[in-house]
Amino acid sequence: MNLFKKTTAAIALVTLVSGIFSTGVSAYSTSEVEAANALAEANIIVNHSSNSAAYNLDQNVLRQEIAAVARGIAGLDKETTYAPVFSDVTETTPNTWAWSSVNALANAGLVAKNAEFRPEANISKAEAVGMVVKAAFGSEYAFDATLGTSWQEQVVAFAVANGVVSSFTNYDTAATRGFVFEAGSNAMASGQDDMGNILDELLGGLTGDDTTTTDTTNTGTTTDTTVKAGDVEVSLNPMSAANGTQIPGTGSILFAKVDFTAGSADVSVDTVELNSLGLAAVPTGTKVWFEKNGKRLSGKASFSSERLAVTSFAPALVVKAGSTETLDLYVELATVSGNDFQFSGKITASSANNNNGSFVTSTLRTANYAVA
After folding, report:
1. Which terminus of the chain, N or C, has less C-beta within 10 A?
2. Cα distances (Å, whole numbers) of residue 212 to 208, 225, 324, 326, 351
3. Are 21 and 60 within 8 A, CB to CB?
4. What pTM was estimated for this model as a whole?
């Protein structure tokens, strides 16, 4: 990232100084004042070195305020025409300014379009460290599920090892301005050039810059597809069941294998929209989800009366540059035998420039037996 982008990201990060914050309960330290002064001397925040109380270092940070920061880093304009996205973010609730930033992120695919955004929830210390680490170190840090430890433990350990913060274990304690400023100042002092993406851990990812062209395979058909850095494509894995395959009429059914392929940059996938096709729609409330190696990676989404289900990955599904992640699509059936079922799917929220492709499963027929 060039100096201009780095400076812009840094300024957006610490624009928290001029936002609206909820009152915290912890007193700020001398080191937090020094960190704020260092950021002020770098013209990143307003200089209150003559009155350190004006930094409001003991006040907490909210999700709606992070959304405003994230929108600035992403270079997105505020939404100018309101349309409902989250049930708890409207033109008047919780205030009149939040929706224009929150909806901009959602409509750009940078945050998942879940039912609620929780705009007035505090950001925890672990989440704040995740923001700073990803901002300063980019892809140098990534959560490793094989370690058997929580993402909070891993990101804090990385930050401690790189001098960003001192070790702590109260991961869920609300972060204050002083804590964020001190971590940000330390991270900037590390000399890292890549400001990375503040949303990777908290709100979703930004996009890549370069472009490349590659051939991709979708449902057995080879096509030429332009894939930009940071783009992601979804397709049906050729090892999926064939048309007419008989499946149990009751139980958790492996319906298909689905490929998620990244371009020339790492991407994170947040949500996938699925539709029930054909004459036999699955009953309203039928559950659908993704697994890998027997481990569920997405939430169990329920099909609506309009045959639609949106499943979310938490944490987001990370697909490394130039690689493919193959996941198993499961559907929980409770129906009579003799029905044919088929589903389609597409990515609806990710960190990619473009969410390419879609998939359609084979048509499978239920039989008169169950799966435990």
Report:
1. C
2. 11, 10, 16, 22, 17
3. yes
4. 0.41
